Amino acid sequence: MESQIFNSTTSTAALAKQSCRLHLKAMRRSISSARRQAATSFANQTLWNRCKGFRFILSYASFGSELSLDPLNGCLAQEGRLVLPKMKGEKLQLFLVEDLHGLEPNSLGIREPSKQNAKLIDPSLVTLALIPGLGFDPETKHRLGYGKGVYDRLLNQFPSLVAWGIGFHEQVFYSLPSEAHDRSLTTLCLV
Fold it and tell me: Which tens digit of pLDDT belongs to each residue from 6-44?
């Protein structure tokens, strides 16, 4: 009986997440160009100042309507501190990246490091992770991503990793549905 209840609860949470994803994707796409540019500029400057005490920083190459961290990533790359993810199956591989020009789109269109312009790095060396999402709950610090669970698995593997959720204020979603495997972030940096 417990197994049936758990599966029912899990299915309900998964369905609620899927509904939220559709809503949050549409909302994020609707952010105006002027708002997006102002937020991007502010976020990159603010994060640059806040990242100074961290050695290797896992960031992301923005995809679709995500908040772009390309200016920050360029500065981190010049300093030899930029780490970017690459999907391998259902897992993230982390690469130290020195040049953003060598990123290549994967099958989903997400820019990733290529082995020609980046080298594999031990994930335990990463001290800060900048993690995008579709929605963020400021009370629980949970994020809603695209549903593959790759960042949750990374945070499970490295529980002491400082993880900041990155996005727009418009992505706040109170009472975001969550499941047992979802991990909280350290803080949210929403602009």
Answer: 444 556 888 999 999 999 999 999 999 999 999 999 999
Binding site residue list: 17-21, 66, 143-151
d(CA 68, CA 85): 15
Is the confidence at residue 181, as pLDDT, over 60?
A: yes
What residues are designated binding site for ATP?
17-21, 143-151
pLDDT single digits (tens) 98-122: 999 989 999 989 999 987 879 999 9
Binding site membership for substrate: which residues? 66
Range of the domain at 143: 12-190
Assess if residue 2 is contained within a domain.
Answer: no
| Confidence (pLDDT) at 2 | 39
146: CATH? 3.40.50.10420
Domain count within the chain: 1
3 within some domain? no
Residue 7 lies in a domain: no
- CA-to-CA separations, 88 to 112, 155, 189, in angstroms, rounded: 11, 17, 28
Picking from 172, 182, 161, 190, the residue whose alpha carbon sits closest to that of residue 42 is 190
